[in-house]
Amino acid sequence: LACRHHHCAFPVSRNGLCVWNTATAQPLYLSGHHYSISALSFGSKINPLLVCSASHERVIVWNLDECTQKVQEGFTPRGIVIGTLLGMVLHIRFSPDDQQVAVCAGNQIYMLSAKNEAVLAELDGHLAPVTAAEFCTWEKSMLISVSEDRTFKARKLYLSLYIFNFFNPKVWDYSTSQLIYQSGIITAFPLLSLLIDEENKQIITGCAEGQLWIFSLISDHNYRCIAHIDLKKEQKKFCNKLWKSGKEIGEGQNNSKLCKTDNMRPEGSVETSLPILLIEHCDFFVCFHHEENIYSSQNTSYFWIGTSTGLLIINLANFELEALLSYKDYSDLSIRIARSCALTRKAANGKVLCLIASMFEDMIAVLEVNLAALVRIQHSNFLPCGNEKNLSVIASLFISPFLRNHYFRVIGHLCKLNYFPTGVKNTVKDKPLVFHSKIKSSGYTAAPRMAMFAPNTNLKIKEASKWKTSCKCKNKEYPLESYPPIKYEKEISVTCKPTPIFCLQYSGDGELLACGQADKTVLIFNSNLTDVHNVFSGHDGAVNSVGWSHDRKWLVSASEDRTLRVWSVCNKEPALILGKEKFQKTVCFAQFYFIDTFILLCCGAEFHLLSFHLDTTKDDLKRYKQRSVCKLVQKFPMTSAMEITSLSAVNEFYSYIVLTAGSNRALEVFDLNAGCSTAVIQEAHVRSVHQICQNKGSSFSTQQPEAYNLFLTTAAGDGIKLWDLRTLR
């Protein structure tokens, strides 16, 4: 996202670009990318106003005046391609004279000419993706960048334990491509944002855990750290201060009260991280030029801090909050958690333009903040009057009338992004290649197979409606308005003596709970834990994994004895047994896949895809011989891993994606339709991932089923992370 004066730039329809003039409410649509746009930036000058967009395959500079003129003349506007095939671009920034563009792609920074396709310099040295870069205006040819670097120190062993996940900014002289400064260790979390304070000659950087650092850029200060600000603590202090004066943040429509003290958290609340997405200058005194009472000295600098949950204003004189705006406190705003945001540097008519994108939905909103009203309300000793407007919400899709609140206005919920390309139709015709019309074909008349799996979509309407209705009645939905489950309601002992429980899984309808134990048994309980539904025994080792089928009739279990068993819920004898001769190592995970068409299991550093047929009938003469059959389809090895520590795949609807985590701390994405690995995230966590969880959703939702499979969480010894499968970040 990008903002500049009255202009907002954001991607639409996956690879298109929209530049919206909020003054005239006229959108300008630009096309030229073939892949998703990952970074945007406006130029430093107003005339001409430039905007740069970057994707995986190209970087394009657009002259908005020329593009607008082309559209008025009926032509398609074209930009200047200044770079191609640079990789995943996370950040771009124009130089102060708009002659060069710094492109942060992967671990490198490319200095490109803004006039033509020319690489002026390549700055390497970072060991992880570069997240932000800024030009130093008072010292020519100086560029400052921050990254997700993880620095290893071999001098002392204990240092490597503490700084394994630490990150550091670097300072470059891009005219000679020479690294002239590298800072020491700053934090254990990725550095996400960066700003240069020209007035005080300082840099401000923020990380993913709500921490701010301020460094001096004065030549004889040697980039020393001036201040460290914990935004979580500052938010609590600010809320307590407002609570004591009898105020609430926001419009008060949802009756959300502030905490009285730091250690009093509302019941059911969950503490989350506070990633700093943006740091921008704040025109604080311009908005108070008619005020006689100025809250602070005229020499003080103020900055906007954009986080995932709201906007903050920091006073650099005392490093305290001056104002706080939380997204969740405004009913007119549909976005509660932001994944990215952008702000205008200068206020227009006392109002600041803000652009935010939702974390969980394909939605973008434009906000207009009345800075003077926001600060005045939160600092005064009286509640706002009814006619004082400091937050407003402007209607969606550029056409609805304004909806106003106190000091905030949502100018629009602009777009629903389309991340799913339409399917390609098969154009090969079924023509016989033999002379006889009635002959059994050997397969040459069929179209070539374009997909490894093909879901059965030829259900009759009546059958599909019955299936849909019955499943809707059985499935239980978690109440969205309820608090997360943080208190246990019941506790039972599953065995007479203490026995470790290695795995648990609810059935899809929430009626039954399967439990795998160290005593080699599998127990099935009712969901309310009032009765043992069934007990399965037969494994010779501890049960590592249990998994339900989609129709809730079967249960698959894997054990330390290197065997896999499939059980019928109504029968205590296994319907299928795969013995030790099938596997060289312990089967640590097993589940049904592709709506009970296959079984996935982990064995060592690879996972197996098995096709199967279950038959519980018995032959009187061969009653001990199982009729169920199972066949290995393919083995998929994980890249550079000694062992797969976790696996996840969707069985609720047809999905080709399988996610694995290895002992090498990597996360790998497999496309079983293509039959190969498609992406690897190296060092996804500091420690090995022991759990992957996908948002599996429901196959009967009004949305596309694939839309539920966009986010996943990974859990390891260093914490829990939320990932976006579209960007693998």
Task: Give an account of the 3D structure.
By secondary structure, the chain is mainly beta. Among the domains are: 498-617 and 625-632, YVTN repeat-like/Quinoprotein amine dehydrogenase (Methylamine Dehydrogenase, Chain H, 7 Propeller); 638-728. It contains five helices and 49 strands. Strands 25, 26, 27, 28, 29 and 30 form a six-stranded antiparallel sheet that branches. A hairpin with a 7-residue loop joins strand 25 and strand 26 (351-358). The longest helix has 14 residues, at 231-244. The radius of gyration is 29 Å and the shape is elongated. Mean pLDDT is 77; it is low at 151-167, 247-263, 292-296, 381-407, 415-450, 466-474 and 698-708. WD repeats lie at residues 536-569. This is WDR27 protein. Keywords: WD repeat.
**Runs with pLDDT <50, length 5+?**
151-167, 247-263, 292-296, 381-407, 415-450, 466-474, 698-708
Radius of gyration: 29 Å
User: Which CATH class of one domain?
Assistant: Mainly Beta
Q: What characteristic shape results from the CA principal axes?
A: elongated
- If you average the pLDDT, what whole number results? 77
Query: What is the CATH topology descriptor of one domain?
Result: Methylamine Dehydrogenase, Chain H
Overall number of strands: 49
Pfam families: WD40 (PF00400)
Organism: Loxia curvirostra (Red crossbill)
Keywords: WD repeat
Protein name: WDR27 protein
Key traits:
single chain; 49 strands; mainly beta; 729 residues; Methylamine Dehydrogenase, Chain H
